Amino acid sequence: MRVLIVHAHPEPRSFCAALKDAAIETLRENGDEVLVSDLYAMRWKAVADAADFESRADPGFLKIQAEQRHAHETRSFSPDIEAEMEKLLWAEALILNFPMWWQGLPAILKGWIDRVFALGFSYGGGRWFDTAPLRGRRAMLTLTCGGLADRFTDEALFGDIERILHPLRVGTLNFVGLDTVEPFVAWAAASVSAERRDQYLGEYRERLRGLASAPLQPFRELAAYPDPLSRDH
């Protein structure tokens, strides 16, 4: 299997980076091909702006989605975006590896999504969810978290982890056609014992060995959610 890992942590000695390194090693031992986009090491530009486009549909007014459509049609995205799009098209599986900050993504990873999951390339023209261009690939979220698992249930302080990850899993990954497998969460990674961190790495390696055949989470099929504004409804 061909796997793209997008890693988003600024410290190479972090446990988040240790998970990334374990994934590279384990997947390659498993016979998989691996590419890595280490966003901080790449000095990835997190903001979507006019510099994303080598030519413009409307030089006088910046509308990001319109310019993304134009860039897709004319192959005029900036080289850094084009390179990441090529990696995505190559990959059969995507791993997003990140620390959960403020119950969301680090800005640099959100910026990767904003710029790479561009209109025309990964959605648009009626292509989304089960008709989206990236359909047939799978994705996995791998994250470190500040709290223990018992803080992330419906009855607990922060609420259910699935609810927190829902915008990313469904509103982003499913939206562009990617199936998802169960996320891997290293709970309280910075405060648990070294022995527990070693256990996390062992558990993660086991998950990765079965990535190609792991059960998929429910996917939103368009037919099950008719558009109330369409003429047929």
Question: Can you summarize this structure?
Answer:
With 233 residues, the protein is of the alpha/beta class. Helices cover 35% and strands 14% of the residues.
Query: Could you name the CATH homologous superfamily?
Result: Flavodoxin domain
**Count of DSSP helices?**
7
**Alpha carbon gyration radius:** 18 Å
Span of the ends, CA to CA: 41 Å
Round the mean pLDDT to the nearest integer and report it.
93
Largest sheet: 6 strands, parallel
The CATH class designation is Alpha Beta
Shape: globular
Number of domains: 1
Helical percentage: 25-40%
The SSE order reads EHEHHHEHEHEEH
Number of strands: 6
Strand residues, percent? 5-15%
CATH topology, by name, is: Rossmann fold
- Catalogue the unreliable spans: none
Structural class by SSE content: alpha/beta
The CATH architecture assignment turns out to be 3-Layer(aba) Sandwich
Description:
- The chain is of the alpha/beta class and 233 residues long.
- The protein has a single domain (2-224), classed as 3-Layer(aba) Sandwich (Rossmann fold), CATH 3.40.50.
- It is built from seven helices and six strands, in the order βαβαααβαβαββα.
- It has helices spanning 15-29, 39-42, 64-74, 79-90, 107-116, 161-174, 194-209; strands at 2-7, 33-38, 93-99, 138-145, 179-180, 184-187.
- Strands 1, 2, 3, 4, 5 and 6 form a six-stranded parallel beta sheet that branches.
- Helix 1 links the parallel strand 1 and strand 2 (33-38).
- Helix 1 (15-29) runs parallel beside helix 7 (194-209).
- The mean pLDDT is 93.
